[in-house]
Design brief:
Rossmann fold; four-stranded antiparallel sheet; 12 strands
Amino acid sequence: MSTLVAERLTLAYDKRVVVDGLDLVVPTGRVTAVVGPNGCGKSTLLRGLSRLLPPTEGQVLLDGEVIGSLPTKEVARRLGLLPQQPTVPEGITVAELVERGRHPHHGLFRQWSHDDEVVVAAALEMTELVELARVPVDSLSGGQRQRAWIAMALAQRTPVLLLDEPTSFLDIAHQIDVLELVRDLNAREGTTVVMVLHDLAMAARYADHLVAMCGGEIVAEGAPSEIVTPRVIESVFGIAASVVTDPTTGDPVVIPHRRKRDPS
């Protein structure tokens, strides 16, 4: 299994520091959710972990090697990234999109093979997209389109997968579909997953490990039962809340308190 570690990681846009001196050891073979308020550095952290954004200080280690020093294809064989709102090439079908996940495994002497066909078929099956394989991606619903992108990431067959807000703009049913798919992938393949989520309840239900960020730093991390507490919620999100336990699943459930506003 691959390991992913950030050491004293500082990330900035121009001279504006967004992530400041952050240390993180991603739990191998587990599902980690990064949570926090808007603008706290969650998506920037994923960009740094995937080497899309080079650090101004510190480093990211993939399997003990500085990720920025590795060849691009080598990184793509070990680590997959699904960014926010990826751009769909015009007219591309679901199958063609998923097939692109195999590109990192091809080279001068390694062309498309029966093994690639098997991997793509398995990704379509796992995401329940077999019947939509020849349908243009831009004609799909939001939930179907997100599943198509995840299928492409599955076809890439990387031991580490980073997902930046995979449930954005989806209704509750499609959010659950996507997160159940992520859990299933982790259970079947042992894939290490790091995903940015806005919904704290969903993060607590579907992740093994939570990383709570605020102001470009990690405020707390650990099991959902340790992190989803009134104290952490107030320090990270600035709101008062009660936390109860779901009697069916045992997961923590957040009940925000109403914020009183000055009538004037």
